[in-house]
Amino acid sequence: MIVPDARGYYGGFGGRFVPETVIPALEELTDIYSQLQHDAEFQNELDLLHRTYTGRPTPVSFAARLTAHLGGAEIYLKREDLAHSGAHKINNALGQALLTKRMGKQRVIAETGAGQHGVATATACALLGLECIVYMGRVDMERQKPNVFRMRLLGAEVRPVESGSQTLKDAINEAIRDWVTNVETTHYLLGSALGPHPYPLMVRDFQSVIGHEARAQMLDLTGALPNVVVACVGGGSNSIGIFHAFRDDAEVKLVGVEAGGHGITSGQHAARFADETIARIGTLHGTKSYVMQTPDGQIMETHSISAGLDYPSVGPEHAYLRDMGRASYTYATDAETLEAFQLLCKLEGIIPALESAHAIAEVVKLAPTLPNDAMILVNLSGRGDKDLDTVIKALEA
Amino acid sequence: MHGLNSIQAVFEQAKAANRAAFIPYYPVGYPDYTTSVDILQALAEAGSDIIEVGVPFSDPLADGPTIQAATQQALEKGTTPHHCIEAIAEVRRRGIETPMVLMGYLNPFIAYGFNQLAIESQQIGIDGFIVPDMPADEGESFQAVLEKADLALPHFLAPTSSPSRIRLAAQKARGYIYLVSVTGVTGARTTVPDHLRKNIAEIRTVAQQPIAVGFGISTPKQAASIGEIADGIIVGSALVKAGAEGPQAVYQLAHRLRHALD
Question: What pTM does this model have?
Answer without folding.
Answer: 0.96
